[in-house]
Specification:
about 400 residues; mainly alpha; 3 strands
């Protein structure tokens, strides 16, 4: 695999080139071994690809992964924090991230800590990262906090991409089907209806049913659209309320097929966040607070708050988690062993890997179930439309043959 790199030598001169190595990490190691400060490493683009010259409008997860990974590499190479940020600021193409780094640099120059400077950029840096950096600055593990954050973000991105890939095919089929049905019922069926109405014989029930649906869309479609928009807006407002959000997130966990997958994905995120916080030295209660802040699911927030309250009352972590009734007995036992052995962060990491595997298995099973159901559903709708159109045409043919 060919990579393009930018590095700075001991004379502060920028060195650019390309190299054929197995991975980005190998390129970083090669640069450090050759006394070059890594600034940027990217896969070499194909000759057929084009470069987008328009400024980036947002900060993506890939931007944050690369930022954390590069900060880890620079700090590991013993580059001072301020210089590391200045080097990245000059070589990052995302204008929004560049602005955020400029403000971090200004904060450091004015005597603020990195965590304090990050607090003014909460739209860019999550509360999870700010807490990790705050603890890491006091423990001297700042480089490790960036490494842990890059790994965490990569896991989150990979899970999101796997989920999107699983729902992409069903979504495309459903959207195409809805568009096709609208076109058929508003354009095609009305043209046949004028012919069918000339038949004096009683129409088949399926034809009568399809004609009524078509008539409804034509004469009441606008009202249907207005009602749907109002229902959507009311649902959005309701979901923003505390009770509404809690009830909705609880319902999502109980849905057939996707409920179990959604639940396991949230548990994996919680255990991963909890593990990352503990690994950089964040205290137990503060780690739970950060884990609760990192999730948007109100059901999970409620359960994490319950675990935290139990700990404050003197219960052990394993007992508190068991009482929350969200983990499998195997994982509860793993956490109990980790608590007793002093390797809780490692056991939580194993637990997150366990649930990641469960999510992958659930995604595979959901895909295996949904695809045949979609095929059957599409087939039945096509059959209904075909019979609804063809049966009266056959009746018309029989009448003409008799005459």
């Amino acid at each position: 695999m060919k990579y393009v790199y930018v590095g700075q030598n001991i004379h502060k001169k920028m060195i650019r080139g390309q190299i054929d190595l197995s991975s980005e990490n190998a390129v970083y190691d090669w640069l450090i071994a050759n006394n070059l400060i890594p600034i940027r490493v990217e896969k070499k683009a194909d000759s057929s690809s084009t470069i987008n010259s328009f400024p980036t409008k947002s900060i993506t997860s890939n931007d944050m992964i690369m930022f954390n990974l590069q900060m880890y590499r620079l700090l590991k190479a013993r580059i001072p924090l301020l210089m590391a940020l200045q080097l990245l600021e000059k070589n990052i193409s995302n204008t929004y991230l560049t602005d955020a780094l400029n403000k971090l640099i200004d904060g450091l120059k004015s005597g603020e800590s990195l965590a304090k400077a990050m607090q003014s950029q909460k739209k860019v840096f999550s509360s999870l990262q700010i807490t990790m950096v705050y603890i890491a600055e006091t423990t001297g593990q700042l480089d490790q906090s960036f490494r842990q954050m890059s790994v965490y973000l990569q896991k989150q991105r990979d899970k999101k991409q796997a989920f999107l890939q699983a729902v992409r095919y069903p979504s495309i089929v459903m959207i195409t089907l809805v568009i096709a049905m609208l076109v058929i019922h508003t354009v095609i069926i009305p043209k046949f209806s004028s012919v069918f109405l000339q038949i004096k014989e009683e129409l088949p029930w399926i034809t009568f049913f399809i004609m009524n649906i078509s008539d409804f869309f034509i004469h009441h479609g606008n009202w249907l659209l207005i009602v749907l928009v109002l229902v959507f807006l009311i649902w959005k407002w309701w979901k923003k309320t505390e009770k509404g959000a809690l009830l909705w997130d609880t319902i999502l966990f109980k849905l057939p097929l996707i409920g179990k997958m959604n639940f396991e994905s949230n548990i994996a995120q919680f255990t991963r966040t909890f593990s990352v916080m503990l690994s950089v030295g964040v205290p137990l209660l503060q780690s739970l607070q950060a884990a609760a802040a990192s999730t948007d699911n109100q059901f999970m927030k409620k359960k994490i708050t319950f675990i935290r309250s139990s700990l404050e009352e003197g219960e052990s972590l394993s007992h508190s988690i068991q009482s929350a009734n969200i983990f499998s007995p195997l994982v509860v036992q793993m956490i109990a062993i980790g608590e007793q052995s002093g390797e809780l962060d490692s056991m939580l990491r194993y637990a997150s890997d366990y649930y990641d595997d469960q999510v992958d298995d659930s995604v595979r099973k959901v895909t295996e179930v949904i695809e045949p159901l979609l095929i059957i559903g599409v087939g039945m709708m096509v059959m209904m439309l075909a019979l609804g159109v063809l049966l009266p045409l056959w009746q018309l043919t029989d009448i003409q043959s008799i005459n």
